From TrEMBL:
Transmembrane segments: none
PANTHER family on file: GNAT FAMILY N-ACETYLTRANSFERASE, LD18367P
SUPFAM superfamilies: Acyl-CoA N-acyltransferases (Nat)
Keyword Transferase: yes
Annotated Pfam families: Acetyltransf_1
Residue ranges of every copy of the N-acetyltransferase domain listed in the record: 1-156
Protein keywords: Transferase
The protein, known as: GNAT family N-acetyltransferase
Length: 156
């Protein structure tokens, strides 16, 4: 743990609490899709002092923990917060008795694919045309059209 992440405080979003859409929309540009999973999931928000600097959403999917959303604002990226959130999600999933955790990301999400594999996640499947079917507007990252979802899993 580095200097910054040593000062992070993780807070569980209480049922009925204000959904941190400004953070969640960084990773999922559809509020409608966020609403489809946020209310039957567990959401943790990372704070540095009183500033929200990260978020993730964990949901049970067929006996596997799935990270449905994970986001860090651009000004806080590259400081270990994303890695910290992944470790926290894995720990929470393990405490709940799950033996595997899954995460999905776009084929164009080069940085995320690097981070997830670096943290022990392995590619298990590709959902062809996921983003073109579920989002009305095209998504581009790193100069690449985001079309397919890459699923990765880690044994806990």
């Amino acid at each position: 743990m580095d200097q910054l992440t040593a000062h992070l405080q993780m807070r569980l979003l209480e049922k009925g609490g204000a959904v941190p859409y400004e953070l969640l929309l960084l990773a999922d540009p559809s509020r409608e899709l966020i609403d489809s999973y946020i209310f039957d999931s567990t959401c943790y928000i990372a704070y540095l002092d009183q500033t929200a600097v990260g978020v993730y959403v964990l949901q049970e999917q067929a006996h596997i923990a799935e990270i449905k959303n994970i986001a860090v604002p651009e000004q806080y990226q590259g400081k270990g917060i994303g890695k910290y959130l992944l470790h926290h999600a894995c720990r929470m999933a393990k405490e709940k008795g799950w033996s595997r955790i899954r995460i999905g990301t776009g084929n164009s999400s080069v940085g995320q694919l690097y981070l997830y594999q670096q943290q022990g996640f392995e590619m298990t499947a590709i959902v062809k045309d996921f983003f073109t079917r579920h989002y009305p507007d095209p998504i581009y990252e790193n100069g690449i059209a985001c079309k397919h979802m890459v699923l990765l899993e880690k044994i806990l």
